[in-house]
Amino acid sequence: MKNFELRRDRFDLFDSMESPLINITFKLELEDFRPVCKESGLPPFHFFLYHIFTSLMKVDNFRYRIFENEVIKIDRLIPSYTVMNSDNVLNFTRFEHSDDMQTFIKRSLVARDESVNSKRLLHSATEFSAREIKDYVFVTSIPWLDFSSIQHPTAKFRNADIPSIAWGKFSLTPQGLLSMPFSVQAHHGFVDGYHMHLLSQEIAKALAETTAALKSLPKK
Fold it and tell me: What is the CATH number of the domain that holds 35?
């Protein structure tokens, strides 16, 4: 928590505001990981999701939360994201994180199927205790739209301290990079635009390293 104390006065300033949120949408450009996913039999969405969650843990500012009127630093994340069920109604997933990519993806697929096949609202996190909810990061994708901004809902019990991540429609740049609108919303007492930049760099780096490792594997 030493690094947080360097910005304690900034936290106090933003936390006193009616809305302490910072929300930036930008173009995230990455190496196109879809071909290697196809060759390796990996679902691109869940491959990408894994790298987002592992990257969030590497940028400390996304791990700060408010609990019992004090700032804490979480040690784990609970993966969760939105899906559309069979009636085209929004639902939520939740599963246990794993640092192992194959295990993470397997759990994510099971969670997706559960929520897609449920007409009942699942995993809204309202059943969690005030402390348990702090391990969340809220994730959604809107693959149909090349959006330029997004506003996430917030609830009073969250203190606006739980980050929200969203991305939209993929496209290719003339250089062959994968480009998408990418939105990060967080408490400005913890996160600045600089930390969103660091997160984007971490995601790009992690994806490039995994993609290179998969390409180096012997072909089946």
Answer: 3.30.559.10
